[in-house]
Amino acid sequence: MTLREYRPEDCGEMARLFYETVHTVNAADYTPRQLAVWATGKVDEDAWNRSFLSHRTLVAEKDGKIVGFGDMDESGYLDKLYVHKDYQRCGIAAVICDELEGKSDAPIFTTHASITALPFFKKRGYTVIKEQQVERGGVLLTNFVMKKRGMERILLIGSPGAGKSTLARSIQPLTGLPLYYLDQLFWNADRTTVSREVFQQRLQKVLDEDTWIIDGNYSRTMEERIQRCDTVIFLDYPVEVCLAGARERVGTVRPDMPWIEEETDPEFLDLIRDFPTRSRPEILDLLAKYPEKKILVFHTREEAAGYLVRWSKS
Asked: Could you tell me the pTM of the whole model?
């Protein structure tokens, strides 16, 4: 079996697959009258094609025959997912979902699952938000609104002063994930540091958890954290933005640091100025080693803010 992107010429065959699957596979859970209004055999292929082209749509093919398809929009809504009646329980739906979810930057995945598909989505970690009745042609059909977190272990990295900790605090209530600051693991309130062994033990305890948000660079352990995370958020902001951010936080109480910065440290500002030429290339090389990870790169605060707005509406 191969998985490929949708082409407009696939639409007719996909419509036939949809009709046959609904009237056979879903017949175990819906009445003939319900099946008749769900899949009438008269699909508006122009509308379907426009929808498929506006979403990421994948087609599973075997021996030149379409055996499954699925599509997801940019918000993470999984619209259609159907597998040929003769290829049920072959793992095709899981492969399609793995690819759609894995390449989406949506923080939350949603779908409206049929009675038949409910066990499949539950197995994938989706939870039922509500059961609902959908009217089609005067007939009611039961389905389930389901959601799943698109991110379980998030790593935030970027130049000092970029606002990683601030963004992490905005993400935390949207996900419900526990938030950890590397600075809190490394620094004491008297501005001394813990030993490397103690820091590593603290970090490992966090990494061993199933869910987390970790804020901080700390290049020595960055690859270890990338290997464990499912999502990296890299704040790749201009130096001027980060310098301003560092100056603005002087005198403020910050939960990510065990003390209040009373003045701007010149060495810290130099670290920010050097970040594009010293740290940034190393980070990009590391991220290139793990293409299977979900990597979000924001170049401006406006980009990050816009993503948070999308997230809050998911």
From this structure: 0.80
